[in-house]
Amino acid sequence: MKRLLSGIQPTGIITLGNYLGAIKNFVKLQNELEDIDFLVFIADLHAITIPQDPQALRKNIKSLAAVYIACGLDPSKVHLFIQSEVLEHAELGYMMQCIGGIGELERMTQYKDKKKRHVEGVTTALLTYPCLMAADILLYDTNIVPVGEDQKQHLELTRDLAIRFNSKFGDTFVVPEPYIADKGARIMSLIDPTKKMSKSDPNHKAYIGILDDINQIKNKIKGAVTDLDGTVKYDEENKPGISNLMSIYSCMTGLSYEDIEAKYNGKGYAEFKTDLAEIVINEIKPIQEKYNELINSKELDEILDNGRDYATYLARKKMAKVRNRFGIGRKIK
Ligand code: AQP
């Protein structure tokens, strides 16, 4: 049996980027892989590495749980839990800091980017959060981690930390492998296609939220930045705007870029954008309906309770071993 694990931060409403780059792949893996144990979590400890409004955070945590299920995660196949409810994440995260070097953390590109965006009040945790991410993964003997392209570097660090720990203290952690889907790996901002689409982007026009209303979605796609040439052609370097929209189109329909180019040959961006809006809305609408059923339900809390209990069971077992290896506390038999 292989164990898979992945998580998303409740830092806002899930975007089409998170959906296409992460959640849709989780659902595919859940349905296609056999003999797996799949843990999916809500990374609230990661979210607080940058300031969050406590009330909004609580809301986003619950909202993300409902979005996961509404997008097709099946609680009978996946263990869904909230990271902070399994205390061992923070404990192992601290231990990972004790074997991680500042130099290797400072090299993380996401840290450099986020530091630039939050010039004032950069927290220590913004630097050390890849250690917590390593803990999230290693705590469960995870074999496969489905991630977006942007998380690849952090996974490399996780592997390094696992190998380092194993060679120093004896075989303890499974060294995980990343799983990166070839398409939809990186969806870009609608207003600046050189920047990743992010749920915490202060400009709402930059992203499509999975819970946006239909008119908002239409308007955001209509207003997405393109070029003046008007030809629907995939060229990431010279036509990043339309290429990004084509990548969304392709992810949602399964059509190749060549198919899309042929379909819109001689037609302008307006027709392409209208069709894309319809495609996106058709996929998102049933998700929103399911979300509305779930968000205030008892069922959602039960799913999260079950997920927490299962994750805690695994995490406790693992931490007993890790504490013994490290030599802290009294020996646990
Ligand atoms: N634009 C994107 N395209 C494809 N995949 C993406 N992911 C995020 N943005 C895109 C993937 O979604 C998962 C969840 O990521 P996260 O919330 O843990 O962190 P993030 O990558 O920092 O996501 P955001 O939306 O950009 O959040 P904020 O604004 O808080 O920084 C990951 O698998 C990620 O690759």
Molecular structure report:
This protein folds into 2 domains: 2-184 and 297-326, Rossmann fold, CATH 3.40.50; 204-292, Tyrosyl-Transfer RNA Synthetase (Orthogonal Bundle), CATH 1.10.240. The strands form 2 sheets. The chain has a 3-stranded parallel beta sheet with strand order 1-2-3. With 333 residues, the chain is mainly α. Helix 1 (16-32) links the parallel strand 1 (2-8) and strand 2. The chain contains 13 helices and 5 strands. The structure holds adenosine-5'-tetraphosphate. Adenosine-5'-tetraphosphate binds next to helix 1.
- Give the mean pLDDT: 94
Provide the succession of SSEs.
EHEHHEHHHHEHEHHHHH
The main pleated sheet reads as: 3 strands, parallel
| Name of the level-1 CATH class of the largest domain | Alpha Beta
Provide the helix percentage: 40-55%
Q: Which radius of gyration do the C-alpha atoms yield?
A: 21 Å
Ligand species: adenosine-5'-tetraphosphate
In short:
It is built from 13 helices and 5 strands.
Give descriptors for this structure.
2 domains; two-stranded parallel sheet; 3-stranded parallel sheet; binds adenosine-5'-tetraphosphate; 55% helix; 13 helices; Tyrosyl-Transfer RNA Synthetase; Rossmann fold; 333 residues; 5 strands; mainly alpha
Describe the protein's topology.
Blueprint: E1 2-8, H1 16-32, E2 36-42, H2 44-47, H3 54-70, E3 78-82, H4 88-99, H5 102-106, H6 109-117, H7 124-138, E4 144-146, H8 152-169, E5 177-179, H9 214-222, H10 240-253, H11 257-263, H12 269-294, H13 298-326
Parallel strand pairs: 1-2, 2-3, 4-5
Helix pairs in contact: 3-12, 4-7, 7-8, 9-12, 10-12
The structure holds adenosine-5'-tetraphosphate (AQP).
